[in-house]
Amino acid sequence: MLIVTINEVPGKKIEALGVVRGSTVQSRNLGHDIEARQIATGRMAKNAEELGADAVVGMRYASASVMQGAAEVIAYGTAVKFV
What are the phi and psi torsion angles at 4 (to 5°)? Predict the structure, then answer.
């Protein structure tokens, strides 16, 4: 699954399939922050695959504290199909 932060895939025509996202909640520390992003990204990619996507464009991360010492990390973007 190709995942890019730009809104297009150079050299490809794309058709938007919809917004996809993945999230996880982890304790807050540097090692877990990286792991949380990897898990959220994997879940987002799985969501895109379920839609039949070839790629995710405009991918971003967001995070929010859900309780003291824990944060939710969300990966989101637009699932696209190459045409």
Answer: -130, 155
Residue labelled with tokens 């070839």:
54
Report in angstroms the alpha-carbon separations of 65 from 40, 59, 61: 15, 21, 14
Residue 12: helix, strand or coil by DSSP? Answer: coil
The label of the residue with tokens 């929010």 reads 64
Q: 39 near 24, Cβ under 8 Å?
A: yes
Say if residue 77's pLDDT is above 90.
yes
Mean pLDDT of 65-75: 90
Phi-psi map region of 18: left, alpha, beta (phi>0 left; psi -120 to 50 alpha): left
DSSP annotation of 39: H
